[in-house]
Amino acid sequence: MAVTMRDVAILARVSPKTVSNVVNDHPNVHPDTRARVQQAIAELGYRPNHSARGLRSGRTGVIGLAVPELKQAYFAELADAVIAAAAKRGLSVIVGQLGGDREHEIELLTHGLPQTDGLLFSPERLGTEDRDLLAYVDFPLVMLGEWIFGGPTDHVTMHNVSAARAAVEHLISLGRRRIAVIGAHPDDETRQLGPSNLRIQGYREALAAAGIEHDPRLERVVAPWHPEDGADAARRLIDSGLEFDAIFTLTDALALGALRALGEAGRVVPDDVAVIGFDNIAISHLTVPSLSSVDPGRAEIAETAVGMLAERIEWGAGSSRPARLHKAAFDVIVRESSGGTGSGTLGSSGRQSGAAAQTLNG
Amino acid sequence: MAVTMRDVAILARVSPKTVSNVVNDHPNVHPDTRARVQQAIAELGYRPNHSARGLRSGRTGVIGLAVPELKQAYFAELADAVIAAAAKRGLSVIVGQLGGDREHEIELLTHGLPQTDGLLFSPERLGTEDRDLLAYVDFPLVMLGEWIFGGPTDHVTMHNVSAARAAVEHLISLGRRRIAVIGAHPDDETRQLGPSNLRIQGYREALAAAGIEHDPRLERVVAPWHPEDGADAARRLIDSGLEFDAIFTLTDALALGALRALGEAGRVVPDDVAVIGFDNIAISHLTVPSLSSVDPGRAEIAETAVGMLAERIEWGAGSSRPARLHKAAFDVIVRESSGGTGSGTLGSSGRQSGAAAQTLNG
DNA sequence: CAGCGGATTTACTACGTGGTAATCAGCGCT
DNA sequence: AGCGCTGATTACCACGTAGTAAATCCGCTG
Question: Would I find Transcription among this entry's keywords (chains A, B) (predicted)?
């Protein structure tokens, strides 16, 4: 059996409670006593029992992170950043994969993840119509992404509209006029605030601002957002015979597929078709040609989300503070696929900073 | 305060212990009683308190997975598979990132991850010289990868030697004779069983078996194994003026960089240089050209490792069963970078099955 | 109808920790 | 010396669960 406070207490000739006080850095412990206890702790190799601590205090020191799939690069990088941010605060992270299963997502929202103090949740299938679910959530929760917007819950997200707009404006600045967009989501009629709709909105705004006529046929619906889907969409676009000189894909994963499909069809990127993605996943600067993208500020998102969740946990279950919304700053990263350099050194790229980070309360 | 067994017991007019028996599917509970209790559980929305359960039973139902970095595609996909395999068994997974920090790795091995019943550990910096550490491990542990081989610990790994050999034999079968290898590890003089050494060994075996002279200058040392490093190594290889008509990179990440570097230098893949990687990460079939690779059997590795760990947890701390070693079956996936097709549909590829899975006891 | 054995249920308790409140030691002051 | 005060330490208990062993119930046998 493991070493307990009791064992330490006996060796240090104090009560278990004094050991507890030392471990928890309570004031009013005599320096000599503290030293003696610490000595005993070291000698016995005592480690606090987290289950017991959890039972007594109601905290586990573990937070949950729920994503669709870790094998999607975007979520892997998000998880990486979240785990790093949590570690800074002494929190561990249980990662759950929901695999785009709506039932699981609803179940998760009603019960939370066992063993955790709170949840960071990046849903895929929930929409505005599920907003009511949030009213009954009785554990600390921070949503990543914004499609259940306006509920009583904290949200950390990105500047989907303005970032998408900036990406398309970049394409326009290259002189492109027939700009296709791949990734509109079939569900999004009912999900006005889904990321796909917001990015599409940014796309339309950019066109409108530049006085470019909007051709609905250039908005390509596709789901889910795997590279294969991007390739399929690009092929259908090519086969459609529609003229186009640029593609904005709503994610980098889609762009990877699109790049392949364009290559197979003999369209040269960026000469014939400029391409820009969204997410700035790690491989995007390694594709051939390297992929321009929008960096949504992943580290900032993770840091902020973990911070908000830690605060909610700190405040306790009862407190009903107002929901907050944070949008991370973004960058447009120009690489070869839209005429940037970036061949010489893999890291080089043009960079256009977008809207500053902003946090709203209310 | 949350609903407890006590509350359920009162409502169902039974003792708390009976509720516990129902929850834990004990035999010898009268069907009527069971139904009444389940009714009460549903009515109150009772959920077991995992901390209390953990305290009482000594089990948390959580396992740890420690990897260098989740943002490396290989580890993200591994984590994906591990989480899925754990979920099948009702286990949650806390993911820890050690970032290639040797101190952290040693600390982890001495204390385990808090809040967990056991650990799956894929170290980066530990070597054969750290084997002694394993003697003092007092928690269930399964190592992923084999460089601390021969200790008292279960290992789940891949057929590094024969898989690498198969990859190189494939290149040879294309008629290539000047085959470079990128990824030899500088530390591996002292780590005879590091994956890099084992894969290099497979490379040499393949050359020897084919009667091809071994040119040490074609073995390129590089560390760490990020794509940038692969690009650097490939550039140095090109600049060296050495003649070569194929490259075997010890990981796909290195291959991604190598593909870029070759493209920049005007070498056409696979006509001038055939390339094959190792790991079969998801993007490898999306690169241009798509990347041939060795699929190390990730799902099998994850499944087996979680199974072994679950068994060790089941057996309890005291039992000192013999260490086991499992090597997953592998496949050589032939894609465009070594002359395969795979352009039409993204998924298509040649496939050559390697050694069957094998498990050794002792 | 007492008695038996297995099925079912229960009382009691400990798991390791930390909050509460009580106790105790030491010190300055009257 | 006696008092009150602060700092330091402690006894006691509860958190929610599940193991142990004892108690109770039920159907049947002799």
Answer: yes
